[in-house]
Amino acid sequence: MTAITPVPTQSITSELASSPTTPIGFLDALAVALHRFGAPAHRIEPLLGQVADRLGVRGDFFVEPTAIHLALETEDGPISRFSRVEPGQDDLERLAELDALTLALVQGDLDLAAARSRLDRILAAPPRYGAAIEAFGFALASSTAAVFFGGGIRECLAAGIGATGVALLARSLARLPSATPIFEGLAAFALASTLAALSWWIPLAQDVATLAGLIILLPGLRLTVAVSEMATGHLSSGVARLASTAVSFGSLGFGALLATRMMHVILGAEASPQLPATLPTTATWIALAIAPVGFAILLRAAPRDWLAILLTAPLGFLAARLGDATLGADLGPFVGAFGVTAASNSLARWRNRPASVTLVPGILMLVPGSLGFRSLATLLTHDVVLGLETAVEMLTVAMGLVGGMLVANVLAPARRAL
User: Can you tell me the mean pLDDT for 80-87?
Assistant: First the structure.
């Protein structure tokens, strides 16, 4: 949600380093754009290396979740640049456009000036979807998540309504940069308090509805990326992202706990726990078919990629279920991640599109964010043993996902860095 502002701090040749039409100016702008739209460090750095080779400079690149450092050797001498950045929002369409831009530049179809002009147009383009469609995406993703968590029709409706409120809150706070640090905790507080009050008049499995309503904010994907970065040798970025994940889990868990305790004080007692009504098996298949639509909207995928996402994203979920049944629950995430990564890489080679377009939604349907939230909730309610057990399970799931992705990238590699 926060705008990204590069801040150059040091340059041996300041005029060259600050000019947007020089190699370092272009590489810096490209790195910030990739970072802003969701590319991880282990994807950005090799892509910058390819572009630097095409521009005739030797470069070293260091990417972290909050900083980008470029050091180049040019004909005019060494040049360095440091940019302070803030995480942006995943945007699969613009990541695909940046991938096409770098491919055209590396292949010699664009010169540096044309590439910079095209990059500026990509950055200046408005978001693909407006507030209403984005809110619909929140509601759809949360409603289908409630089905996967075992919720009934009441939990699905409550989660969808709550997620719509979270989307509207996100839009409102986007105009207040100072409120960004408290957004996750405030969203969890607002959602949990609303559902706690609602559960007094309507029989509702409050924990299922709350978890599903917050599913988009749970940093399970960030956790998976952090483990992936550490597994590929990007330790600094991975550790920093892991710390950010822990803070997000803490904010969400504390906000939900505070809301529950406050509503208990206001209403005088807690509503009696409710078991969700059991939905037929066909509900899971329907949710599996339409959930990728919600994720495609939230990840701002281009309409041309929707069909590929609809076909690919459920594969990981189905492969994970198959792995659970045949190899055990511990290896289910590995099988699921392997299946969706191999399918995404193969489809990307055929469509000549970046694999991340279909891989990110597929992994998002597998990430262990819900386990992280449950472990934190149990810790905050003083059930330390169960909380630690769930946290270990969450890390095991994350490592299984990363392992499946790495193996699939070896056996069925993608042609493109993204």
Answer: 79
